[in-house]
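Entry 14. Structure prediction run on the chain below.
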Amino acid sequence: MSKDTTVRSRVDSRLKADAETILNGQGITMSQAINLMLRQVVIQNKLPFDMEGAPKLNARAQALCDAYDAGVIPTTEYPDTKAFFASLGIN
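Output returned:
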C-alpha cells in the first residue's frame, strides 16, 4: 500500500515528547505507530483500545442521549448541506 497522503494533528508538546520517547524505546517512529493504529482501526472496525478514563456524560447530556436513542427527540434529515444551512438561516 503506497503512502500518498498526510495526516496532521495538533497535540500537546509534552505528550508528543513522552510518546516519542516510549515509541523510540520500542524501535518505531511516531509515523509508524500512527500507521499501526490506523490499520487496527480498519481491521477491528473500532478503536483498538478501551476508552476507560474517557470523560463521562453529565446527567443532562446522558438524558438527551437516552431520549434520542428512545426516539423521543425528533430528527430532521436534509438532502444536502445547502438545505441544512438554509434551515438555519445561513445562505
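Residues 30-44 form the longest helix (15 residues).
Filed with the rest of this week's runs.
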